[in-house]
Amino acid sequence: MTNKDTKAETASRRKFLKVGAGATAGAAAAVAMPQISRAQTVTLKMQGSWGAADIFNEMAQEYVKRVQDMAGGRLKIDYLNSGAVVKAFQVQDAVHKGVLDAGHTVTAYWYGKHKAASLFGTGPVFGANASQILAWIHKGGGKELYRELVQDILKLDLVGFFAMPMPTQPLGWFKKEIKGPDDLKNLKYRTVGLATDIMQGMGLSVAQLPGGEIVPALERGVIEAFEYNNPTSDSRFGAQDVSKTYMMGSYHQAAEFFEIIVNKSKYESLPQEHQAILEYAAEAANTANYATAMDNYSRDLQKLINESGVNVYRTPSGVLQAQLKSWDTVLENLNKDPFFKKVVDSQRDWSKRVAFYDLMNSADYKLAYEHYFGKLGF
Fold it and tell me: Do residues 169 and 252 lie in contact, with contact meaning Cβ atoms separated by under 8 Å?
């Protein structure tokens, strides 16, 4: 190689290194720059179906916080308590009409439009728990069936997501301990959704009321017994002031969830990143809501027992068996509707497979509890 060739090769190598270094620096600068959303700021007006004191508003706010944090402040939600714009049972209609942009509610509150709505919150118990039925919504075809019901059958301008696998709801509050199915007959009782059909099938007279109307209805004699949802919500509206008998465990509402609805036209006008945040924030809220529930429900149950003098009983197996028989009758009648049957069959198939796995595999938690803390008393 000549001296001239050597100089040319050196110059070429220097040029390559200079260009390469510049390109690398440019790439590093591009990576280092914050990825700022170009979407315009949007504020959605959302109302819940919950009275001002209900812990469910706190759970709704946990959803709101996740939406806003993930959107970097470019998607905001103005959350309102029940009654701010419409009443608890009117949230869905308000979102459909665009009076509200979004709602935080439950499907049992609008099941009068189609009883299959209740299957997405107060459906039959085939052995699967709330977490497993929420998994059915995500992986077993539930969200597709929900979309079919809301958009194709009912023609509602809505999209919806589900959050928070609610623990089994207690049988409720009574004047005396319920020892068998006969103790329930002819009672004037508050519940919602398909639970109305179940309890009516057991001989009760049922009224559907929002949570905020329960105690006034009891004081007026409209109802004699009631269930709402959990020890925290129940104690916050004063259930312990009108009753001292709390029956825990039931099949009337053993797997319910929050339904987060958004006006479909409004939703589709949003950037895709905002649409994704609204959907996936519901999944994120599952963990936050459940943790909030476990912390509060357990503490408030102890307060009801130790500070308010409430007598807590486990619902006897005779009542649970009577509920299952009532479910059988209700399903036999309602399965005449093809869509209702399609949803029930989907849940049944899912539960047979998923609950089998869980029941075969789960540890005996009651045995472990009693090993360390003593007998539960039931």
Answer: yes
